[in-house]
Amino acid sequence: MAKLPDFEGLAIFAKVVEIRSFAGAAAELKLSKATVSKAVSRIEARLGTRLINRTSRRFALTDAGRQLTARAAHILAEGEAAEDAALAQATVPRGLLRLAAPMSFGVLHVASLLPDFLAAYPEVSVDLHLSDAMVDLIGEGFDAAIRIAVLPDSSLVVRRLCEMPRYLVGSPAYLKKHGRPKHPLHLAQHRCIGYSYTTTSETWRFTKGGKSATVRPSGPLRVNNGDAMMPALIAGTGVGILPEFILRDAIAAGHLERLLADWSLPSGGVYWVTPPGGPRPKRVEVLGDFLFENLSRHMRGGALNRSSRRRLGRSSNRRSSAKRINESSISR
């Protein structure tokens, strides 16, 4: 009879990779460092290959280790989810939650909410990673991500937290020098600032009634963060498209103006994204509920903007139904 897989060893390996430290994983799992090291060595011996190159100063996965990481992380997540599901309502949300979020939105609207969440759930800790790059939730060991997206269909489980319109804008200085576009196709003659991390960075799509127009913009600058685009927009370097929460104050102050306001860009939103399959650990559910309640309430009181930094109270446990989308087709 074939031996069962070493599930414990694989789960310990996944935790070591997540923390990127044997000592850190041992502390997180409440095991001795020797136990953690032996578990990884056991997996390496069973597979006949080294998974981690480690010294006192360096931690690096081998090719075999990188290939194993996603499946081992899935085993760990499924084990934690199975325990949470079995404990059902008796389970108190606890443990580490790894959350990815876009840089600008995360700084302004996620980080400010976390103190209230952590006060409400003292046995939960959050590891918040801020980047506009698209993360691999499973492969990189994230429990959830917040994404600003235009959603086609696909395989991840998502929950809409709030709407997030996007606008085409330019500065008065730019418009005085280059003129104001009257139709989306006129943008082909304008200097456009691109965004590096969106899957449709080279295509802008506009609709008006039953008409549509598609533009492939070009210009002197591309950036991978919305805040990094703002100085160039205000200085008159070009025109660009950004989410409303970044633009609101600059538009209100007259530094930027909406362009082609009678045309619509694809409707976007802020989404809570989790990997597909199985029940979620309780800590993931309660943070999703918390953000849904607080961000939805905030939007009902007015669009999110850069001056909105107040912290909101603990959310109710109201849930929304989840949709499934394809991770590769979500843009920030």
Question: Could you walk me through the main structural features you see in this protein, from its secondary elements to its overall organization?
Answer:
- The chain is of the alpha+beta class.
- It folds into three domains: 7-80, Winged helix-like DNA-binding domain superfamily/Winged helix DNA-binding domain (Arc Repressor Mutant, subunit A), CATH 1.10.10; 92-164 and 269-329, 3-Layer(aba) Sandwich (D-Maltodextrin-Binding Protein, domain 2); 166-258, D-Maltodextrin-Binding Protein, domain 2.
- The protein is 36% helix and 21% strand.
- It contains ten helices and 15 strands.
- The strands form five sheets. The protein has a six-stranded mixed beta sheet with strand order 4-3-5-14-6-15. It has a three-stranded antiparallel beta sheet with strand order 12-7-13. A two-stranded antiparallel sheet has the order 1-2.
- A hairpin with a 2-residue loop joins strand 9 (204-208) and strand 10 (211-215).
- Helix 1 (7-19) crosses helix 2 and helix 2 crosses helix 3 (33-47).
- It is elongated and about 70 Å long.
- Mean pLDDT is 83; it is low at 301-332.
Number of strands: 15
CATH class of the largest domain: Alpha Beta
Percent in helix: 25-40%
Proportion of residues in extended strands? 15-25%
Assigned CATH superfamily of the largest domain? Periplasmic binding protein-like II
Order of helices and strands: HHHEEHEHHEEEEHEEEEHEHEEHE
Structural class: alpha+beta
| Poorly predicted regions | 301-332
Summed up, the domain count is 3
- For the CA atoms, what is the radius of gyration? 23 Å
- Strand line-up in the sheet with most strands: 4-3-5-14-6-15
Per CATH, which architecture of the largest domain?
3-Layer(aba) Sandwich
Describe the largest sheet.
Answer: 6 strands, mixed
Mean pLDDT: 83
* Structural shape: elongated
Instruction: Give the distance, in angstroms, between the N- and C-terminal Cα atoms.
Output: 49 Å
Number of helices: 10
